Amino acid sequence: xxxxxxxxxxxxxxxxxxxxxxxxxxxxxxxxxxxxxxxxxxxxxxxxxxxxxxxxxxxxxxxxxxxxxxxxxxxxxxxxxxxxxxxxxxxxxxxxxxxxxxxxxxxxxxxxxxxxxxxxxxxxxxxxxxxxxxxxxx
Length: 138
Hints:
By secondary structure, the chain is an all-beta fold. The protein is built from no helices and 10 strands. A hairpin with a 6-residue loop joins strand 9 (about 115-120) and strand 10 (about 130-135). It is elongated. The two termini are about 20 Å apart.
């Protein structure tokens, strides 16, 4: 995270999953989707999509969040992702048919951990989704 001011931060991200194989069991694919990071290394977050909504051998997700603390421990976060899944890694950088997602999150840092409500959409789902996070992930 990079602080722009005492109340505004920019949080860039880049997530990549690559498998080079002729055959790959389904569980070892790279999955994208979901508003938060997963405990699984091959599941990449993507705002505007359901958890693990899309998969292939390789995936690339770039994102940027803009976080504003409007009151002590209360935040608004604008979220943006762009990325894709492909069977071969060399096609990942061809962004002509990339998926884009946007979202807005209200967050509160409570004594039991973060409480968040996210409203999001993407050109992949073409509908509005919501996500609620209560506390820390284990």
